[in-house]
Amino acid sequence: MRAATSTLRPNNLDKDLSDYKLNCLWAHARITNIEDLANALITTKSVHNQTWLLFVYEQMPLDSDVSLDYRLEVINRFLNRDDLTDKAVSIANKMISRLNSPNKAN
After folding, report:
1. Where are the domains of the chain?
2. Residue 32 pLDDT more than 60?
3. Which pairs with CB-CB distance under 8 Å and at least 24 residues apart come from 88-94?
């Protein structure tokens, strides 16, 4: 948990984090406040972190307590940033398309 808590600090989010630290961040947000995960996605400047966090929203089961509407809202908030790379925008748009797909399997 200590790794997850330190990861939430904005100065740590701008560098590429290891997958295990990002996973700790996800786990910590799931048991405390899911909005922390959204804030991490919306504030990190690392394309690696952005990509990893975007995939989290697709990985969540549809029957989880994190609604599809909330996931789409978070990704759209992310897309409202004016400093995104083309890669990040492309990945976010693919996530929206996949989440909206009627064949979404979870």
Report:
1. 2-100
2. yes
3. 88/47, 88/50, 88/51, 88/54, 91/50, 91/51, 91/54, 92/54
